[in-house]
Design goal:
- The chain is mainly α.
- It has a domain of about 130 residues: Hypothetical protein af1432 (Orthogonal Bundle).
- It has nine helices and no strands.
- Helix 4 runs antiparallel to helix 5, helix 5 crosses helix 9 and helix 6 packs antiparallel against helix 7.
- Bound molecules: fe (ii) ion (2 copies).
- One fe (ii) ion binds next to helix 7.
- The site of one fe (ii) ion has 5 residues, from helix 7.
Length: about 220
Amino acid sequence: MSEAEQHSHTITIEVPASAKYSNGRRSPLAKPGWQYVEEAELADFSAEEWTFLNAQSAEYSTEERANAALRMLGTLKDDPSFGYQVNTYTHCLQSATMVMRAGWDEEDIVTALFHDMGLIVCPEAHGPFSAALMGPLVSEKNYWMLRHHQIFMNSHSDNDPSFTGDKDAREVYRGHPHFEYTATFVDKFDQNALQADYDTASIEVFLPMVYRVFARKPHAVPVID
Ligand SMILES: [Fe+2]
Ligand SMILES: [Fe+2]
């Protein structure tokens, strides 16, 4: 078999020549007065370079973390639906709107806003995806909810004839301190946040809350299952 035949299923993506290489151009620095590290390998950085790099990196992360998360969520805005009345973006905003209207606190609202951000790109692990994003910024209650909400959805899929998993899979966690919170979130603000005619708040409503939650000092996430 020729090499061409071996790779006959390789998908070739045409990339504009201008996008293939950096051509020696540096990405612009985020702020005036900031410096580049001149070396391109970590092992060659000097102590002085590590010092200013760490300071710049910490400042950048603090200020841009919320923007980066909002950009990621925003990429879903105009997605088509795979069958639900609304796409994942609207589902996330609708869930957050429902949490807000129920009078739950700001952290819970922001958690709802991002709870399914990974649903399309990594559906099998979209709970841990959002948990990794939000965990360092929120309480253990919301971290646990994000990690486990997928199997709590199983309990609402009674009429799905193709479902081969365990519809009672959540029962293994009954009695856990965050079981009832997670069950309530999924029941009231997730499995039903698929409504085209619901008065869903726009992203602008949530922005001040997102910036406040993302401005929190990140903490280590607990090791849980
Ligand atoms: Fe989900
Ligand atoms: Fe959801």
